[in-house]
Automatic annotation (TrEMBL):
Domain Rax2-like third: 394-555
Organism ancestry: Eukaryota, Fungi, Dikarya, Ascomycota, Pezizomycotina
Protein name stated in the entry: Cortical protein marker for cell polarity-domain-containing protein
Keywords: Membrane, Transmembrane, Transmembrane helix
Every Rax2-like C-terminal domain range: 913-1162
Record-annotated Rax2-like second domain positions: 234-383
PANTHER family tied to this protein: BUD SITE SELECTION PROTEIN RAX2
Transmembrane segments: 1168-1193
GO cellular component, one term: plasma membrane of growing cell tip
Protein species of origin: Bombardia bombarda
Length: 1239
């Protein structure tokens, strides 16, 4: 059990928290180097060779897409449980967490000393942990090492920070207790926490700014300087001893006197059995109480016994578990003078004294104590009663910890509850607490608890709700939100009622201020109460709802302020007269109950914004601090201002308003910009349709390589309002305004980033050039919906596809079939590049809406014609808008598109498949409808040699033809033909392994008897048979792809009978598993081999110059989901990450290319005909060389053997020929050829 937070000290002022001393030594030993920067780890290059594929595109259900380039990237959605992170940007623009927290970061500033040394970035919020390390409300972050140093010493919530280099100080504001201050304190240089010359404020501080005159201006909801104080009647809360565990040592053996519990709740009784506890004769002893909650006592009351002349004479009080002997002050009954004692405190034996009160000198936390009796009167010591009191006003969820019933109090603290509550151990918390485990649906009546405190005097109170941490009990994943309500005054119009929402997702114990204001004392007609229930409608399968205690702290106040305070560093504060400051006078002019929410300084002007009115201004005003005059800014705004951001001369303002008070500028709608130099208001577009809570600056590359400052707007809205040519945009409370474009980022038709979530604070440019952000974001390098191009980088198609309202990811064949059958698929599911007959058309199909060039709406199937300036068209209204296209194929001029498709074309009903003529841009005569089963089509495979269109899916009939599972449409005869007669079942995927062999995967039956998950069809024999080794597959095949160019090897993925996902490769005879395990939730929707430009180590399943890509939603161990991963035969590596507008990871359904040359490994390869001709040429050259070499060798041999040429004479030969008579020469021709020689 952790002891309660120490709220008061005996010392009047504390400079440093003791635990801060080691920290100060650490802070003084480091400073951030000007060249320092956060570092990130590049991911290995993919080395895909896309050179032979032409155009490449990715299709799926996403609103943002990124290549995996750094190991810090992921597909995690932004947090919705109240936790945020300290964020930085990767070199590719993606936001990544550098420090995780369990709650919100509300303020940041760079802490630079006046000598130029940067100590780090101070971060403040309502967190209890940073990077898993306990850290309450404020810490220091070192960008050089990414280390966090908690600035211990305050407890509560920090809402505002101001780092002042001139005074080496960090001014801190919020709702907290630290040192001897409430809600405001300073951290000075390396000295640590230092109380300001005033005791803080009696209300929250929400903003701090430094004016041009050097003054520090605090803004908030306070009415005076002040601090926590004890009630007018101190020691009024009774600490419950009746439910403690009581033990003793050396108790008397006399009947009726041995039980140490005798003296609890027996304060009015006389000595005697059952009322008195005695020690053994002539013996020392002890009395000990152990509690299941922590407390801070201020007074001990002891009733001495006088039974038989006995009594306690000397005693000491030891606080446990710290084993500290406590100091007390008391009034000596003999002298009437104040006295003090420590280890030997006296107790009078005067029978006329009913009891003695001893006041604790130091108020500390404990959960047990022991009274040691060291001396006694008469025969032995003993007591007749004991009571313990405190100032802290708590109402506990467990009634055993509230004031005891035996005290007879009229309005004792108590709690009432409904629901399945159980008691949880305190573990590292200050007390045990209640836990209710609630199953969905979560409603306000699922459980409730009402806290009723013992309020004895009316006054200004701060009310805090205490929540035990979730890490200690392992419930962080099921913690959620709670609703707090309550009425604190008998007259409900006197003060606002409590109506607050809180997160219970804190890692460690925390408290949240839920109210500050007037609280009436309990009476017979009214009692203050706080009710806590689960926030209804939370999207959690189960909720862990916890309740511990509510605390009420009386606030002492000087009054005289109203939301503004002007502090001059180094000067004493005159709390009796605040009117010397024009800033204080401005606050005093506001009506009672006003609040200042934001401050900003530009030159001599200080802007004050919030929820206030005066005779001259409303909700926003500017003051020249040197001339002490104000500017009304067109009278202010007609609604409250929650936040401001100053960027140059532009002041961005957000809140709940619609126009300036003088109505000169209308249609501001909750967010606007004030041009300081022009003294004019302007809307941001047409604003948003709900309250704006935060405006934060960030940088984005919009139209050039240089980033520009843009403005994020966060709040309770779901739409960016339409204006000009821009339609309304649905959002999740987050928008980005681009000042250079005068438009929202979500409206820009530019290749820009996708960002969604929440930003609460930022620092643009810390030393080293980095920027830091606070919030919870999901982001992508390219904001695009449904389809993107893939090359060296990602690109977008010139088409506007509306993002899906929610993710459609699924897992397993059953889910895939259900998604198609029930039309729950979303996004682009299939795509084709059509280049036939000189066309240049990109075809996208799925379940989506898009905008045509003429402004009309396209449903589910669109054409992007590159030859007509990227004209975007659809297919008209003949196909029902709730259809889903899952497969596309082009044969000649005809597009065949199938899926869960219904409609009426040319008066004829169509189902599962439609045919559309791309040349005439009209529907052909349609193939007869595919019906039976679920009537859906999942795959199309065109046989190239014949043009026949083979389709697979869940159907039984093609028109009237029995054709279960697989059928083909003859394009020459325009009729359906059954592909074999021995197959039945549902087909999920098909591919041509060879020109005559078709493979089909799914849940199939051959010959009505043999079940199979993968079958092959012999076109020549027109029969189906099991694919070799298909019995080794653990479940139906969902996806197929060729593993080699000749189709002799294939890859298959599917869902095993146990629900797990498998990935296997066949060499044509046997199967081999990929080996690596994919996590639950994986949905493989596509497989494709790619060639590589750089080889990896060869593996048995993947050759060294190739790699396998998986698309879908692939959940990798120790990483999470990725929309595309690469598999090299041994390991999976993320390749593409996506985000969805529904705050989930997106998914990739399909990758499609212009050419299918996936197995070509080099862009310099020649066509086959040239390779053959070159080979023949080389062969002839080699033959000639061989002949020449032979002749040379033969001539050389003859020369060596002495051969010489015979003498010749061309003259003699000529003369000889001339001597032969012609008739002799011709005569020889008539003679027969001589026969073979004979031996």
């Amino acid at each position: 059990m952790r002891l309660p937070f120490r709220r008061r000290d005996a010392a009047c002022r504390r400079l440093l928290s003791p635990v801060s001393i080691p920290l100060l030594l650490t802070l003084s030993s480091f400073a951030i180097s000007p060249a320092s920067a956060l570092t990130f780890t590049p991911a290995p290059a993919s080395n895909l060779d896309l050179s032979q594929l032409g155009r490449v595109a990715l299709a799926g259900d996403f609103s943002g897409i990124s290549l995996y380039q750094f190991e810090e990237q992921n597909e995690h959605p932004f947090s919705t449980n109240g936790s945020e992170s300290l964020l930085a940007r990767l070199p590719n623009g993606i936001f990544t967490s550098v420090v995780d927290t369990d709650a919100t970061i509300q303020a940041m500033c760079t802490f630079v000393m006046n000598n130029g040394t940067t100590l780090g970035v101070v971060i403040g919020g309502n967190f209890t942990s940073l990077q898993g390390r306990q850290s309450n409300a404020v810490a220091l972050f070192d960008p050089n090492t990414a280390q966090v140093t908690p600035l211990t010493g305050i407890s509560g919530q920090v809402s505002a920070l101001l780092c002042d280099q001139e005074t080496n100080s960090v001014y801190v504001g919020g709702t907290f207790v630290g040192a001897d201050s409430t809600n405001a304190i300073a951290w000075v240089g390396t000295e640590g926490w230092t109380n300001l010359p005033f005791a803080g404020f009696n209300g929250p501080v929400t903003s701090i700014t430094k004016a041009s005159n050097g003054h520090i201006i605090f803004g908030g909801s306070f009415t005076g300087l002040g601090n926590a104080t004890a009630p007018t009647t101190p020691d009024g809360q009774i600490i419950n001893l009746s439910t403690a565990s009581i033990t003793s040592g050396s108790s008397s053996e006399k009947q009726g006197f041995s039980d140490p519990k005798n003296i609890i709740c027996k304060t009015g009784s006389t000595d005697g059995p059952g009322n008195t506890w005695l020690l053994q004769d002539s013996s020392t002893g002890f009395w000990q109480a152990t509690f299941n909650f922590g407390f801070q006592p201020t007074k001990l009351r002891l009733h001495n016994t006088h039974f038989d002349g006995r009594g306690t004479k000397k005693w000491r009080f030891t606080a446990l578990p710290i084993n500290g002997i406590m100091n007390f002050t008391y009034i000596d009954p003999a002298t009437g003078q104040n006295a003090s004692c420590t280890s030997e405190c006296p107790l009078s034996d005067d029978t006329s004294i009913a009891f003695q009160d001893f006041h604790f000198v130091n108020v500390i936390g404990m959960n047990a104590f022991r009274l040691d009796i060291s001396a006694f009167y008469g025969s032995g010591g003993g007591l007749n009663g004991i009571e313990l009191f405190g100032d802290d006003i708590f109402a506990y969820a467990i009634n055993d910890f509230n004031e005891p019933a035996c005290a007879g109090l009229q309005f004792a603290s108590a709690a009432t509850k409904t629901g399945p509550w159980t008691v949880s151990p305190s573990l590292s918390s200050t007390s045990e607490y209640l836990t209710a485990n609630i199953s969905s649906p979560i409603t306000i009546s699922s459980a409730s608890i009402v806290f009723s405190p013992d309020i004895r005097e009316s006054g200004t109170y701060s009310i805090n709700m205490y929540t035990p941490g979730c890490r200690q009990d392992g419930t962080c994943s099921t913690r959620g939100q709670v609703q707090i309500t309550g009425q604190m005054t008998a007259n409900p119009t006197k003060n606002e009622v409590i109506d607050k929402m809180l997160y219970q997702t804190n890692d460690f114990d925390k408290y949240d201020q839920i109210y500050i204001g007037e609280v009436d004392a309990s009476s017979g007609s009214f009692r203050p109460q706080v009710t806590m229930t689960p926030l209804p409608g939370q999207a959690l399968p189960s909720l862990t709802f916890v309740a511990q205690r509510v605390g009420f702290t009386l606030i002492n106040s000087t009054s005289g302020l109203n939301g503004l305070f002007d502090y001059t560093p180094g000067r004493a504060v005159n709390a009796s007269d605040f009117t010397n400051s024009a800033v204080n006078r401005l606050g005093a002019s506001f009506t009672t109950g006003s609040a200042v929410n934001a401050l900003a300084t530009s030159g001599d002007l200080t802007f004050v914004a919030g929820n206030f009115t005066s005779q001259a201004v409303r909700n926003i005003v500017a003051m020249n601090v040197n001339e002490t005059n104000t500017k009304s800014l067109d009278g202010g705004l007609n609604g409250a201002v929650e936040t401001m951001l100053l960027n140059g001369t532009s002041l961005f303002v957000g809140g709940r308003f619609t126009s300036t008070l003088d109505n000169k500028t209308e249609n501001l709608n909750n967010v606007a910009v004030y041009d300081i130099s022009a003294d004019a208001w302007s809307p941001l577009g047409a604003g948003v349709n709900g309250r704006v809570l935060r405006i934060v600056a960030l940088t984005i590359n919009i139209t050039s390589s240089a980033p520009e400052v843009v403005v994020s707007v966060n709040g309770n809205f779901n739409q960016l309002e339409a204006f000009g040519n821009s339609s309304a945009v649905s959002v999740n409370g987050f928008g980005i305004w681009v000042p250079s474009q005068k438009n929202w980022l979500q409206n820009l038709k530019l290749p820009v980033e996708s960002i969604d979530g929440l930003l609460s604070s930022s620092i643009l440019g810390i030393p080293g050039g980095e920027s830091l952000y606070a919030g919870s974001l999901s982001s992508s390098t390219l904001g695009v919906s449904g389809a993107a191009t893939l090359g060296d980088t990602l690109g977008n198609f010139p088409v506007t596809i509306q993002p899906s309202p929610a993710s459609s990811k699924s897992s397993g064949l059953a889910k895939r079939d259900d998604a198609l059958t029930n039309n729950t698929s979303a996004g682009v599911v299939a795509g084709v590049f059509d280049t036939n007959n000189g066309r240049n058309i990109t075809i996208l199909g799925g379940h989506f809406t898009a905008t045509a060039t003429n402004g009309s709406t396209i449903n589910n199937l669109l054409f992007l014609d590159g030859s007509k300036n990227d004209e975007v068209t659809g297919i008209g209204s003949e196909i029902n808008s709730n259809s889903t296209f899952a497969a596309l194929a082009v044969q000649g001029d005809v597009l065949y598109a199938g899926g869960n498709v219904t409609g009426t074309v040319n008066g004829v009903r169509v189902n599962a498949l439609v045919a559309y003529n791309l040349a005439s841009k009209s529907f052909n005569t349609q193939p007869p409808a595919l019906t039976g089963g679920s009537g859906t089509l999942s795959s199309i495979a065109v046989r190239k040699s014949t043009g026949d269109v083979y389709v697979g899916g869940s159907f039984k009939l093609a028109g009237s033809l029995g054709c279960p599972g697989v059928c083909f449409f003859s394009t020459s005869s325009s009729q359906w033909t059954q592909a074999g007669q021995n197959i039945d079942g549902t087909v999920s995927s098909m591919m041509w392994a060879t020109e005559t062999m078709l493979l089909a995967g799914g849940n199939l039956t051959i010959n009505n008897t043999v079940s199979s998950f993968l079958v092959k069809y012999d076109v020549d024999k027109q029969t189906w048979d099991n694919y070799p080794g298909s019995s080794d597959l653990p479940g139906p095949v969902d996806v197929l792809t060729a593993g080699t160019s000749d189709g002799s090897q294939i890859w298959a993925a599917g869902t095993a009978s146990n629900g797990s996902v498998y990935l296997m490769k066949s060499n044509g005879t046997s199967w081999q598993s990929a080996g690596e395990t994919l996590e639950a939730g994986t949905d493989i929707r596509g497989l494709q081999i790619f060639s590589l430009s750089s080889a990896h180590d060869s593996t048995p399943t993947v050759s060294s110059n190739e790699i396998l890509m998986l698309t879908g939603s692939i959940v990798l161990p120790n990483f999470g989901s990725a929309s595309a991963v690469l598999f090299n035969g041994t390991t999976f590596r993320p390749f593409v990450l996506t985000t969805s507008s529904g705050n989930t990871a997106g998914s990739l359904a399909h990758i499609f290319t212009e050419q299918n040359n996936f197995f070509n490994t080099s862009s310099n390869q020649l066509p086959l005909v040239f390779v053959v001709l070159i080979s023949l040429g080389i062969s002839l050259a080699l033959m000639l060389l061989i002949v020449a070499a032979g002749l040379f060798v033969d001539r050389l041999r003859k020369r060596r053997e002495g051969y010489v040429p015979a003498p010749t004479s061309m003259y003699d030969r000529g003369n000889g020929m001339q001597r032969i008579p012609p008739h002799e020469l011709l005569e020889s021709l008539s003679k027969g050829r001589p026969g073979a020689p004979h031996l």
